[in-house]
C-alpha cells in the first residue's frame, strides 16, 4: 500500500499497471508504426525502380538502296533487258526547285536581278542538285562534245549535240511552232498505222491505231527483239522484225498494262529525243 498526502491509500500494483498501460502503444499507434516501417523498407525498392536506366540506342536507319541498273534487275522474274540502257536508273524530284530572289544587294540598296542572272542561278542550282530533272543535261553540256559519256535518269547516254541544241535560246514564233507540231503529229499517226499493220496479225490490229495506248509498247517489243534502243525504233525496224519471223500480236493484246509497265514506259518516253 502507498499513502498519499491526501491520506488515501493506493494499491501499488494498480499504479504500476496504470504506468505500464500508459507506456504501451495504442492500436492506432501500432498501425502507424507498422506503416512507417513498411514504407521505410519499401522505399529503397521504389528508388531502385525510379533509377534512370541506360536506354538502348535506337536502331540505325538503313541506308537507301542504290539505284538499279539492268545488271541488278536481271534476276527479277519476267525481266527483259532494255537495249541501250547502260547507266543506273536514278530518282527524279519534280519539286526540286530553286528559290530565286528577284532582287540583289544590301538592304536599302537592292536592285532587280536581270533575266540572265536569274537564269544563271537556275542553271547552277540544277548542276548542284542531282535530283533536279535537268541535272544531267547541264552536266553533259558542261563536258563539251568530246567529254565523257553522261547518262540520263533512265540510264541512256545523252547526245551532246541534241542537248546543246536544246540549250540554245529559241525565239518565240507561234506560227512556226504550230506548223512543227502539226507535222510531228501527222508523221506519228502515219507511223502508228504502218506499225500496227506489221505488228498484228492481218485484220486484228486496233481500229484506230494512231490513238492506241499500246503503240509505244509495240515499239518496246520490237526494240527488245532486235536489240535496238527504244528511242531509235522506226517503221523500218518493224519491217525488219517482220522479216525475221517474230510472233505477231493478236486482237486484244497490248491494251492493258500494269502500273510497273506504265512506269517503265514513262522512263522510256521522258527525254527520249536527247539520247544517242
Give the gist of this structure.
This protein is mainly alpha-helical. 47% of the residues lie in helices and 3% in strands.
- Assign a percent range to the helix content: 40-55%
Question: Any idea what the shape is?
Answer: elongated
Discrete helix count? 10
Strand sequence of the main sheet, in spatial order? 1-2
In percent terms, what proportion of residues is strand? under 5%
**H/E series:** EEHHHEEHHHHHHH
Q: Rounded to an integer, what's the Rg over CA atoms?
A: 43 Å
E-strand count: 4
Largest sheet: 2 strands, antiparallel
Structural class: mainly alpha
**Average predicted local confidence, pLDDT:** 79
Provide the low-confidence segments as ranges.
Answer: 1-28, 42-77
Gap between N and C termini, in Å?
131 Å
Number of domains: 2
Biased composition (Pro residues): 55-67
Region (Disordered): 1-114
Descriptive report:
Helix 5 packs across helix 6 and helix 8 (215-226) packs across helix 9 (235-243). The chain is elongated. The protein has two domains: 70-167, no CATH class; 174-274, no CATH class. It is built from ten helices and four strands, in the order ββαααββααααααα. With 276 residues, the protein is mostly helical. A hairpin with a 6-residue loop joins strand 3 (103-104) and strand 4. The chain has helices spanning 12-23, 27-50, 70-73, 115-128, 135-143, 160-167, 174-199, 215-226, 235-243, 259-269; strands at 2-3, 9-10, 103-104, 111-112. Residues 55-67 have a biased composition (Pro residues).
